Amino acid sequence: MSIEPMRIFFKEIKEPIKTTMIGNYAVAGGVTQTDPDVICAFPITPQTQSVEGLSDVVNHGRLKAAFVNVESELAAISYSTAACAAGARTFTATASQGYLLMTEALPMAVGWRIPLTMMISARAFNSPNLSIWNSWEYTQVNSELGWNIIVSENVQETYDAAILSVMISEDTLFPTIFVHDGFIISHSVQNLTLIPDETVKRMTPKKPRHIIDPSKPGTWGGIVTPDYFMEGRASLEEAKKPVLGQMEANFKRFKQETDREYKLIESYNLDNPSKTAFCTMGSIAGNIISWMTKNKDVGLIKIRAFRPFPYEELRKIVEENGIEKLIILEKSDSLNGLLPPFSMTIASALYPLKTIFRSFIVGLGGRDVTRDEFDIAKKKMATVNDMKGPLYMYLGVRETKEKIHGVNF
Amino acid sequence: MSKPERNLINFEDILARKEKSNVLFFNYDNEAFMNTGIQESGGTPPFASTTTGPAGEKIPGKIGVKQDLVTPFAFFGTKKLFLATANPAYPIDFMGKVADALKSNGSAFIQSYSDCMRGWRHGASDALKISKMATDCGYWPLYTIRVEDGMPVFTYFRGLDVDKEKFVEYLQSMGRFRHLFKPQFMEKEIDEIIYFTKQRNDKLKGLIDRFGTEKPVDFYRINRKTLEPQTHLQPGHGLCPGCGAGMVLNQLATAAQAVAGTNIIYVNNTSCSEVSTSKDNVTSWNVPWVHHLFESGATVADAISTTKKILKTKNLYDREIPWVIHIGGDGSTYDIGFQFLKAALIRTSSFVEMNEYLDQK
Fold it and tell me: Is the Cβ pair B274, A66 closer than 8 Å?
């Protein structure tokens, strides 16, 4: 052990332990408890400590695994995909530019139905400048390739997601990404409760599956003509249908074992007089909840399962609670005049309900999302009663040297 | 000067060895992106005409060099590596090298000449003749580098001397060099190709002198009567008549089968050999075969080999560790896949040691 926060994972965890830790080490610990066979990643801030922590447990003998340093993210995802397809429980991690570089190999992991898990410490893409800080890059690209994506709000959630992702991947035979906001969660020390090793082991058994092996020869990833390609795609779509149900079943199982409850979509205070709710993901949700202690007239809908998107669940929540207006907050933008990607998802899911919404682009490149901004968003939304005019705006952009606030609709 | 001494290597002796490679990386070099339609690559020789570097009235084909891929690998700092060039027109040497590579610890890279009658513009029936000529004229020397504890030992079989007359005949036999001869004889360009080849071979000779051995000529001996025909790749694939890759795959699989039986996994980069042997529901492969991306095959092969070993170390795999061969070609090795090949080659010459550490009680 040479990384102090990893010390706790070197002794068997027999009882739930309350401790404090940054998100990345919590993930490293959670992944360690799932007993991966291969870990392969390429360093990129703010993901690095997660794999550093894992190399620590491997090199100091806590975890028996092949920890492989490769030459790029495309090599990391290729290596991880192949290792997983050859029978290894495999973990990788990335962010931002690394996720873009992985793009070419991401569809194969879905097509081969491998239970690979990947952590993303969400970070902005470089444009027009380099930023190592938080934006929701994972919503801007690759979200339709078929990976499961779950998003965490705090350190506890991301630690749990490291274990839940293994459960979900093994069950669905689709690769799973779990996301936390870069720096805001990855590098901030928060309280969490660790799960006993024995419980994790019980929740994440290594199940037999079809692997690349001479004992059962097969041809993987060969060429197909137009006579066959569509059937392959349609059968993936078919296989994807039960995934949300499988996710829910695993959340339930997780609750039985740990007493911590997760849902595809979580909601707070929807029975409010303004019939209005914020809708967002990740660390902003925690911020809003604390702001809501003094703002009880607005609710919150927090998306935990971003892909596959639980659109029926969302419709049900909005309909049953009579929500008329949504304030969508997201950390990604759209330079083409259409809605930014998270809002696009929400808008298409709620199209039949014709829910009124406006989208606020906040916190790009790690800028703090402040309670003042929630106030502004709430105030602006109070005057909106239709879907006319621009549907999104930036909030928190510096207007003059001293002045930061929203621009007009 | 006395005749250099031969180092006789019997196929049976190779098979009897206990050593085992992690991955054999194999490149069939057809000197352009053939699967996409004869586009110029880093493997294209100077002045060859391709569809992205055609012989024009101003520019006579490829401007640039054919990258030297094999020799530099000896100097990347690897610990244990088997490196060789091969040519299917010399099948005994070819199959001997494949078996030798698979039966050597560390990892291996073999680069084979691979005729492409469509891309090089000649008749299908000339494929073997041209392949043979390539080594005889000095264009494709056959040599081997065995890196032991970081130090290379250079040996060769033949083809180190450039025979100018044969070389010109070699160039003339292919349509891709026709513009160098008609409508006028382009002496400067032809001389330049010859010079390019000579300087490369001179460097090789220097390395053989410096890092050689007492018996510098490797001479493989195989009893062909006892050699089983390969069953890894079934007949009925879609390669062109006279395709060099067909000869290469056949000889590669014959030697691999003698070593590994069916305990083997092939990984193929996107290439002619990939698209023509895996189509739809009629795969030509009887053993596991994997295609991932154009460039990532070397990484995938390493991952599969490493995975089986770590699973064995964790008592999660009870079979014998399979052999793994990675096949690249059509520019996937020279260009887009080079970074992957380089890194995987270097990694696989040290993983055995890492696994040993993990095994310690």
Answer: no
